[in-house]
Design goal:
This protein is of the alpha/beta class. The chain is built from ten helices and seven strands. The radius of gyration is 23 Å and the shape is elongated.
């Protein structure tokens, strides 16, 4: 059997009320596009019958295969993205949420229609977003622009990706939000952005909160450091050591002898740590 043109992938935790509507919309999108397709549905440890609802729908889905991947417990969207490549076969992968804030019958054709030979990733932009997260999203996007230089309006929304760009992904928990544009950019991906319509959630609730936002910002800094210094940690520790030594020398009169000496010793310790980490990495590569 020939590989499908399109793999539609979603993940759900306790979204039983959205299953029928989401899958019907996904099938409508495939019919409208007229391409060969598959739907891969990750049930992320749901306890409300989400998986059973998907299985029941799949039994009457017709020509478009629906693959259900059941997880024994909640693992998050990052795990879904990591497992997307081995569980799909399409030339393109469309990552969409099952909560119906994006309507698959509308948005999947828009993303697919924007893909061309000069594009690797098509990103959706929730231009008229009304979920109360707009300010947090703008702050997050601005930090992304500043740290990584990719100017997109919506870093963490629906996307269509060439499947090969998802191979051999190594992501930490909650790093799905960095797939586009940060990690994809590092893989040489070319981007295109299209406007899509945001819709109010009808069933279930969002997990967004201040704690999650603060974790996202901290992860941004971590990703930046790993991408910049992951292969050369001694450089990062060296910068810190030079800064500590400069403060010790320039501020000796203000800080006092003990503090200045402590900073000087700290600079030596930082260099030693950097050298040790570098040695471990180089040894592991052999």
């Amino acid at each position: 059997m020939a590989a499908p043109e399109l793999s539609i992938v979603t993940s759900a935790y306790n979204e039983v009320g959205n299953v029928e509507r989401f899958l019907s919309g996904a099938l409508q999108a495939v019919e409208n596009l007229g391409v060969s397709a598959e739907i891969v549905f990750f049930d992320d440890g749901s306890t409300d019958g989400t998986g059973a609802a998907v299985a029941a729908f799949a039994g009457r889905s017709g020509d478009v295969p629906i693959k259900l991947v059941r997880r024994p417990h909640k693992m998050g969207i990052t795990a879904t993205i990591v497992d997307t490549y081995p569980n799909t076969a399409g030339r393109y992968v469309c990552l969409v949420p099952s909560d119906l804030e994006s309507l698959p019958e509308d948005d999947i054709p828009v993303l697919y229609g924007a893909m061309d030979d000069e594009t690797d990733v098509v990103v959706g932009w929730r231009k008229d977003r009304g979920d109360g997260k707009l300010l947090a999203s703008k702050i997050y996007n601005w930090i992304n622009w500043y740290l990584f230089g990719v100017r997109l309006h919506d870093m963490n929304w629906i996307k269509l990706i060439r499947r090969e760009k998802l191979s051999d992904l190594r992501l930490r928990s909650d790093w799905h939000r960095f797939l586009v544009p940060i990690l994809a950019q590092k893989r040489g991906c070319r981007f295109k952005e299209v406007v899509t319509q945001w819709h109010q959630r009808r069933y279930g609730r969002s997990n967004f909160g201040l704690k999650r936002f603060s974790i996202a910002i901290a992860d941004l800094v971590t990703v930046k450091l790993l991408l910049a210094y992951g292969d050369r940690p001694l450089l990062f520790f060296g910068y810190c050591a030079v800064a500590a030594l400069a403060i010790a020398l320039l501020g000796q009169g203000v800080l006092g002898g003990v503090a200045a000496t402590g900073l000087a010793l700290t600079s030596v310790l930082l260099l030693a740590i950097g050298a040790a980490v570098e040695f471990i990495l180089k040894t592991g590569d052999r």
